[in-house]
Amino acid sequence: MTLKLALLGFGVVGQGLVEHLINHGEKVKEETGFEPMVVAISDFKKGSIYDPKGLDLKKVLEVLHTFGSLEEYPDSSDLVRDLDAVSTILQTNANTIVEATFTNVKTGEPALTHCKTAFAAKKHVVMTNKGPIALAFHELSELAKKHGTFLGYEGTVMSGTPSLRLPQTTLMGNTIHKISGILNGTTNFMLTEMETGKTYEEALKDAQSLGYAEADPTSDVEGYDAVYKVVILANAVMGKRITVGDVERKGLNTLSTNDISEAQKNNKCWKMLGAVEETAEGTIHAAVKPMLLDKSHPLAAVTGATNAITYSCNMSGEITLTGAGAGKSETGYALLIDLIHCEQQMKNQSHTLENLR
Ligand code: HSE
Which pTM value belongs to this model? Predict the structure, then answer.
């Protein structure tokens, strides 16, 4: 089965995926047999193009870089323009939707509607949008299962660093009773900068100019971005059913420069940590807040925009994974690895069905 992809939203993340398909597609094909075809791209601002026989990806990037939109992509007898996102899901021959629209994390829209529409039309979905997964993970995975489709969401936590697939596949069989980590690059970067004497405002400005912070940095500095990730980890990795409102939250803006220098004097450091833990009584405690760590703590050494996560497992012990939490290449890779897994899962299912016949 060839995955025929429709990309909804063509910002940094979607372009990251397309660059990987152009630059690394051949190697990935040799290694895994994965050879997808991008048939449609629909972007609210840049325009929409659909060719049932497949788009020329080099041409797509060329026109985008030259004209800033997809309008100048060359016409052909098969080319259809101006399909909106829902029409792209319903009216194209794409069997897999790459959801990368700008999403409201409070409502999960429009991505939530896109996912539900795709599943009902028996199409797979991969995405890096935190909103829908934080708000409706169980509903979406049940819908995907009901329709025999695939839901990929690796990039919602730590971009291309496999913070979800590692515990879900490689660490399978363990009971993971606690997950904690540095889940937001902006605040970790700011703390590192503030330790060198910068003010909160200067550190935030640097984080914004380097592209780490979200468009509205409130979500980063007040801890909401990490709260969504904690909810995803609790629900998707630990199998719990918590919501955003269940997570205790305290922002980075509650720390003063004095708190930071006092910690340094005492050979300690502050880290904005996100954690979820199952207590001995079986209750769940989840929190995102600045926490004081000894300099010898493994997470104390994680500086700049780097993320890190520790899984406390009953059989394999504590395992810590460190890596990027954002970035065009990394987040584009998260989509790619979801797509490869999607195709492999579909192949395995059809082999199983054949064997049962
Ligand atoms: N703004 C986020 C961060 C990006 O700083 O980690 C990834 O969610």
Answer: 0.95
CB atoms within 10 A of CB 233: 29
Position 357 confidence tier, pLDDT thresholds 50, 70, 90 = low
Question: What CA–CA distances, in Å, run from 102 to 45, 56, 130, 224, 338?
Answer: 11, 24, 11, 17, 19
Print burial letters for 65-94: b (CB count within 10 Å at least 16), e (below 16): eeeeebeebeeeeeeeeebebeebbeebeb
Q: What is the per-residue pLDDT for 40? A: 98
Tell me the residue range of the domain where 10 lies: 4-160+328-356
Q: What is the pLDDT of residue 291?
A: 97
Q: How many domains does the chain have?
A: 2
Q: Which of 128, 156, 184 gets mutated to test ligand 1 (max ligand atoms within 8 A of its CB)?
A: 184
The predicted structure's pLDDT at residue 280: 86
Is 17 exposed, middle or buried, given 0-12, 13-18 or 19+ CB atoms closer than 10 A? buried
- Check which CATH number belongs to the domain holding 308 and give it: 3.30.360.10
Residues in the chain: 357
User: Is residue 229 annotated as part of the catalytic site, yes or no?
Assistant: yes
In a shared domain, residues 34 and 153? yes
